[in-house]
Amino acid sequence: MKILNWLLVIAGICGLISVRILEDKIFYDPFLEYFHEANKNIAFPQFEWGKLIAGHLFRFILNLGLSCFIIQCLFKNRQWTVQGALLIVIIFVITFPIYLYCINDKFDVGYLFSFYMRRFVIQPLALLLIVPMFYYRKQLMAKNQ
Fold this sequence. Notes:
Layout: H1 2-21, H2 23-26, H3 31-36, H4 49-75, H5 78-104, H6 111-122, H7 125-144
């Protein structure tokens, strides 16, 4: 059974990697090329607000689902999975409006700041914090029993 769980975790990670690899084919994001060039003097791309927001929300939902799947397979605790999902949603709710403001401001607030806000919006970075936190919690609970 442990092997199956690790295979499921690997499948979840592969899902997250697939979202990243296929991002230019699946999502509407004219800023992919803008930030890929790493040249802040490149022309600001034209975009449609509705399609951009919908694309980011769709990507967030995919990343959230795969992240919750990974958390559930690792810890087998529905309450922790819900807590992880809540933390991820809170981070998104904070960073997404900031990123949209950066876009509205044409990244005048700062190129690197906008770049990193975008990373928090489109990548499941919170998962890298949640998994060690829950692992530590699991170790503390095992030690206290």
